[in-house]
Amino acid sequence: MSSEPERCIRVHHAEPLEGEVLVPGAKNSVLKLMAASLLAEGTFEITNVPGIADVGIMAELLRAIGVTVTETPDYGVVTIVNGGDLTPVAPLELVDRIRASINVLGPLLTRCGEVTIAMPGGDDFGSRPIDMHIAGLEAMGAQFEFDGGTVIARAERLHGAEITFDFPSVGATENIVTAAVLADGITIIHNAAREPEIIDLCEYLNEMGARVGGAGTSTLRIEGVERGSLHGCEHETVPDRIQAATYIAACAVTGGRLDLLNAQSKHMEMVLSRLGDMGMEIDQLPYGMRVAAPERLRSADVATLPYPGIATDYKPLIITMLTVADGVGVVTENLYPGRFAYVEELQRLGADIKTDGHHALIRGVDHLVGTSVVAHDIRAGAAMVVAGLAAEGTTTITGVHHIDRGYDDLVGRLRNVGAEIERVGC
After folding, report:
1. Residues 357 and 314 in one domain
2. Which range marks the domain in which residue 178 is found?
3. 250 and 399, same domain (yes or no)
């Protein structure tokens, strides 16, 4: 049986983009909401769900564990029915396809008393170990065994604990919170992650009947409730701030003007401030935000930091903007190693970039020149599309399956605001 032919994205140099873009729900939230549905019997309806490949992979994983998942992508809805008959094993063939699979660890452990899970896969941009997840759950009474690449966790009943993270890890915060909602007693997490997606998860848990306080601050307090006391609920996924930033970047490199419907400027204050330094005009609207770009951006220095700082997911987009800005900018990666793989692709397009350890020095050029490039991961792939808009001639991007994992019709949304872009056979 023949496999589906590989697709590419072909982008032509763009005139200023203009119009409206609807920003979908956040990938980095909806996958965690889906995993949290393992905590309780009942029906869960999640709305504002992006039509991305990772949602389908998470749905497959949840089905393998024993819940029913119905996807209605035309309406942005996922319905999950948890009948309570769960098999707390996350199969390797699914776990290896998506890093967010680690988010079933906390819910399954606290609900079922045990879980077997392979180390998660996903984007290849350096090691993101789960040491903090394990240490936090051990403090709550879990015991772990390691068999090759498989983690086996057991705890007849977790108990509350006071946990301090060395680093405000999003994944560890999510796993400890979801485990703590059914633990015996009170759990307090210090130096917790503060991202909008964490707030969204905490609100979802509270809608299920959990008792989580402090969402959006660095200290979370979770009062455990009895197993069986949580229930199904309806929840609207928070808008995707990284997708919003992608359309801002597309606007920026083309000198355009866009209205981003549903975008939440309050979730992007630090990066929007820095984009303002680069010459972008950003206005809050009742239904989103309006962004307008100058004829040419100004360079700036940018460093990634935990939220509310500038997220590492923004960095490929920022570096792409700086490649055609006026002046020299330095971008420093403080969170994850190995996230400069896409720089070589930008250099193929004519960008003047030098990297040294955690730093990239970008000297802006008048224009990029289209050629063939590769999407190495989700955000780097989106950056290649943005770069193609700024490049003279035609840019062809391969590896677009990465883009499909995190973007809901990127090609169609850009085409609707004036980009000459299409999906083609490779």
Report:
1. yes
2. 27-236
3. yes
| CATH at residue 171 | 3.65.10.10
pLDDT in tens, 274-317: 999 999 999 999 999 999 999 999 999 999 999 999 999 999 99
From the candidates 54, 74, 85, 123, give the one annotated as an active-site residue. Answer: 123
Give yes or no: 240 in active site: no
* The three-state (H, E, C) secondary structure of the chain, written as one string: CCCCCCEEEEEECCCCCEEEEECCECHHHHHHHHHHHHHCCEEEEEECCCCCHHHHHHHHHHHHHCCEEEEEHHHCEEEEEECCCCCCEECHHHHCCCHHHHHHHHHHHHHHCEEEEECCCCCCCCCCCCHHHHHHHHHCCCEEEEECCEEEEECCCCECCEEECCCCCHHHHHHHHHHHCCCECEEEEECCCCCHHHHHHHHHHHHCCCEEECCCCCEEEEECCCCCCCCCCEEECCECHHHHHHHHHHHHHHCCEEEEECCCHHHCHHHHHHHHHCCCEEEEECCEEEEECCCCCECCCEEECCCCCECHHHHHHHHHHHHCCECEEEEECCCCCCCCCCHHHHHHCCCEEEEECCEEEEECCCCEECCEEECCCHHHHHHHHHHHHHEECEEEEECCHHHHHHCCCHHHHHHCCCCCEEEEEC
Residue 13 sits in the same domain as residue 58 = no
Its pTM stands at 0.95
